[in-house]
Design brief:
Helix content is 36%, strand content 19%. A two-stranded antiparallel sheet has the order 1-2. The chain is α+β, with helices and mostly antiparallel strands. It has two helices and two strands.
Amino acid sequence: MSLTFEHVTLRQRVLFGTGKAPENLAAEVERFGAQKVMVIASEFEAAIAREVS
C-alpha cells in the first residue's frame, strides 16, 4: 500500500507519493513550461535528487 496525495494552498502545492518524485517533478516542469529547475536536497535525500535531475 502506498500513500499518494496532492495538497494545495494559496501559493504552495505539495505532491507526495512513494516513488513518484521523478514523475511529479516532470509534470510540474511541464505545467510551468520550465526548461531548467534547481533541485535542493539534504544528504539524506541526495539519491532521490540525483534520480530526478
